[in-house]
C-alpha cells in the first residue's frame, strides 16, 4: 500500500497541520489540498515573482483562488518585506464545490484579515458554463456546456494593485470583456493556458498599456507563467 493511498484515507481524520508565521494554520487533509499547496508553495515561479515585485500591494486579487494558497503566499512574502503592511484580498473561484473549503481554509490561514470571496467567472454578458472535475478539482474549467454560472462584472470592483490570473484557459474572456479593469493593476501574475493568436493579442494589449514582461517561465505542463509590471513600478 502506497503512503499516498494511506494518507488519502486517513488525512481527513488526521490532517497535516502547518503553522504559519502569522499564527495561521494550513491543514492538508486530502489529495486536492496537497496538490494545490504543492502547485503554489513548491513552485519557484511564485516565490520569484512575488519577491521581484518592488512595491507592497494593498488590494490583491486572486482569480482562480482554488484553496487560497496563493493568497496565503502573498501575505507571507509581503509581510516579510514589510511587517506593518495591511492588505485587502479578493478571491474569485468559479468552482462552487470549492467555495466552502476555500472559506474554511482562508479563515484558518489568515485570521483577522480583510477577505472577500466571490463565486463566479469573468465572462461576457451571456451565460458561461463551468465543467467541474470531481476527481481532480484542480482540472475544472470553463466549457461549452456544464453548470451555468453568472459572470462577475469586474468593472464594478476596486482597482487591483496585484492581480493574479489562473483561470484555466478563460484568460481571453477576461481580456476581451474587462481589459480596462485588468490594465488598472500595477502588476499581473498570469498563467496562460494557450499559445496562439490570443496570446499574441493579450501580450500586445499589456505592452500597449505600459506593462513590461519581467519573468517568463514555461512550465512542465506546457503553460506559460508570466509576471508583468507597469513601467513606473
Q: How would you characterize this protein structure?
A:
By secondary structure, this protein is an alpha/beta fold. It is built from seven helices and twelve strands. It has a seven-stranded mixed β-sheet with strand order 5-4-3-9-10-12-11, with helices on both faces. A three-stranded antiparallel β-sheet has the order 7-6-8, with no helix packed on it. Helix 6 links the parallel strand 9 and strand 10. The model has no long low-confidence stretch (mean pLDDT 84).
Pick out its properties.
7-stranded mixed β-sheet; alpha/beta; single chain; 3-stranded antiparallel β-sheet; 233 residues; 26% strand
User: C-alpha Rg, in Å?
Assistant: 17 Å
What is the 3D shape? globular
Order of helices and strands: HEEHHEHEHEEEEEHEHEE
- How much of the residues is beta strand, in percent? 25-35%
What is the fold's blueprint, element by element?
Elements: H1 3-10, E1 16-19, E2 25-28, H2 31-41, H3 44-52, E3 59-63, H4 69-81, E4 88-93, H5 96-109, E5 114-119, E6 128-131, E7 141-143, E8 147-149, E9 162-165, H6 171-182, E10 187-192, H7 197-208, E11 211-218, E12 224-230
Parallel strand pairs: 3-4, 3-9, 4-5, 9-10
Antiparallel strand pairs: 1-2, 6-7, 6-8, 10-12, 11-12
Helix pairs in contact: 3-4
Amino acid at each position: 500500500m502506497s503512503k499516498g493511498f494511506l494518507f488519502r484515507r486517513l488525512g481527513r481524520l488526521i490532517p497535516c497541520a502547518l503553522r504559519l508565521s502569522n499564527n495561521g494554520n494550513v491543514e492538508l487533509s486530502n489529495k486536492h489540498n496537497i496538490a494545490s499547496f504543492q502547485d503554489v508553495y513548491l513552485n519557484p515561479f511564485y516565490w520569484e515573482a512575488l519577491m521581484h515585485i518592488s512595491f507592497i500591494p494593498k488590494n490583491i486579487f486572486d482569480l482562480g483562488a482554488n484553496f487560497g494558497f496563493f493568497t496565503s503566499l502573498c501575505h507571507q512574502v509581503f509581510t516579510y518585506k514589510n511587517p506593518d503592511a495591511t492588505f485587502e484580498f479578493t478571491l474569485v473561484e468559479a468552482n462552487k464545490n470549492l467555495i466552502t473549503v476555500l472559506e474554511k481554509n482562508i479563515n484558518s490561514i489568515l485570521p483577522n484579515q480583510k477577505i472577500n470571496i466571490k463565486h463566479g467567472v469573468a465572462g461576457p454578458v451571456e451565460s458561461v458554463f463551468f465543467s467541474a472535475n470531481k476527481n481532480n478539482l484542480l482540472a475544472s474549467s470553463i466549457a461549452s456546456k456544464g453548470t451555468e454560472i453568472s459572470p462577475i462584472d469586474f468593472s464594478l470592483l476596486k482597482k487591483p494593485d496585484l492581480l493574479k490570473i489562473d483561470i484555466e484557459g478563460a484568460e481571453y474572456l477576461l481580456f476581451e470583456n474587462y481589459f480596462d479593469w485588468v490594465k488598472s493593476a500595477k502588476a499581473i501574475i498570469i498563467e496562460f493556458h494557450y499559445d496562439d493568436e490570443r496570446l499574441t493579442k493579450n501580450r500586445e494589449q499589456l505592452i500597449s498599456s505600459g506593462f513590461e514582461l519581467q519573468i517568463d517561465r514555461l512550465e512542465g505542463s506546457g503553460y506559460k507563467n508570466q509576471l508583468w509590471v507597469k513601467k513606473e513600478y
